[in-house]
Amino acid sequence: MSNGFKCAGTIQSKDNPRIKQFCALAKAKKQRICEGLFVLEGIRLVADAVKNGAAIEYVLATQKALSELSEFDFDNIPVFEIPQQLCEKISQTQTPQGVFAVCAMIDNHIDFSKKSGKYLMLCDIQDNGNLGMIMRTADALGVDGMILSNCCDVYSPKTVRATMGSIFRVNFVVDKNPGLMLETMKENGIYTYAAVPDSRATNVSTFEFPQKACVLIGNEGNGLSPDIIEKCDDSVTIRMNGTIESLNAAMAAGIMLWELCGKDGHNAL
């Protein structure tokens, strides 16, 4: 691949099909699912997508932003110049950088049959920021696989931005049947642990996870359902001082992930 790119043309009108498509994908989950596409905004996100071999349909960029893209490999990716007014129209942020892209949804698969593996399963996480932050932490600590069960849309612009590029590096799958997923993991020798705010549960800081293990984190307000907790092999908790009863889902996930695969040197920081 050669560095840089050749501009594929200029788009001036808000009625251009690519502009309309970008706006529709940014706005509606139904449209993203229908087309199998999602949107990116910002130099870092687009650059991470390119570096990690994501299937980018096309890039939109202002004249000013084009010069900042010259160091990246855009071979065979159409790059279109757009004016500042169009940039402001399609941007999802307060301070747009002038770089946008339409990308194909990621085709991931988790191989549970490996001899060892550390996994994270999120159930009913509904905050885009939490989901994005948890994915970044999973990326940093080298989680082998991440299951998103009935969570908010991982492909929404807010979630994608919150991952800061980790969406292209974390091996994740979207799932709608947590019970069946738990059965699949158990069939492959993976021990499952429900993260709960319960003093009777095992203290995660003193617990040694087995070679094949998965931690489950639940909804921000309600946690994991009793049915899911019962299906897990055991429950683990974060011991807290004072009158604090629980932590933010992203913070709790970070602590759990450090205990699961960080402190023992498994792909640690």
Could you walk me through the main structural features you see in this protein, from its secondary elements to its overall organization?
- This protein has 269 residues and is α/β, with parallel strands linked by helices.
- It has ten helices and twelve strands.
- The strands form two sheets. A seven-stranded parallel sheet has the order 8-7-6-11-9-12-10, sandwiched between helices. The protein has a five-stranded mixed sheet with strand order 1-4-3-5-2, sandwiched between helices.
- The protein starts with 6 loop residues before the first strand and ends in a 7-residue tail after the last helix.
- The relative contact order is 0.14.
Describe the structure concisely.
The chain has 10 helices and 12 strands. The protein is of the alpha/beta class. The longest helix is centred in the middle third of the chain and has 14 residues, at 128-141.
List the helices and strands and how they pair.
Elements: E1 7-10, H1 17-27, H2 29-35, E2 37-41, H3 43-51, E3 56-61, H4 63-66, E4 79-81, H5 84-90, E5 99-104, E6 117-123, H6 128-141, E7 145-149, H7 157-163, E8 172-175, H8 178-187, E9 191-195, E10 202-203, E11 212-217, H9 226-231, E12 234-237, H10 249-262
What is the string of helix and strand elements? EHHEHEHEHEEHEHEHEEEHEH
Strand content: 15-25%
CATH architecture of the largest domain: 3-Layer(aba) Sandwich
What number of structural domains do the residues give?
2
> Could you say what the CATH topology of the largest domain is called?
Alpha/beta knot
